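Note to self: keep these together.
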Amino acid sequence: MTHGEPVPPPGDWLAAGTGEDHAEIWDRLETRGGFPEPCTRNDPRQHQRWSTQRRTVLVREDLRDISQVRQLALVEHLALLLPGRVGAPLSVNALRKELEVGHDTVSNWLGLLERLYYCYRIPPYARRIARSLKKEPKLYLWDWSQIKAPGARLENMVASHLLKGRARLKRSGVQRVRALRRAR
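Structure:
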């Protein structure tokens, strides 16, 4: 999904920057998302084209390749609805009514979009399992730049980084060490 030549990092990218540099980088990360191509370029039109092309390729090509979904236009409509649902408990029933399809169909489509790294869900945490099963999970996007509300965008960005950090710790074996300590 490149729209030209890749942009190399600046020659001094390892050097410590000023506070202004950090603010600019933070701003760019928040508004352009965490994907390298749109984040390294400072062109809003380029970012919009990249995001639209990513969603189109994901739904019309990748989704078609891994599933038997025939209603690609409805799945794309679902993908357009999801940025407005970020940060709140995800009601599959409300999405079902809006898309006028079955509950299982929407759940299946959400699962497919998760497999394609468009979105992910985080289940609620509660000490009692019965309570967490009753609550709905929250939905987040891997490309948080699609989210219009600044609070939801920040929450999504933090959730994405926490999830990536957790995966990194899990790969390094830190969770296994904690589990062994608890077992003693």
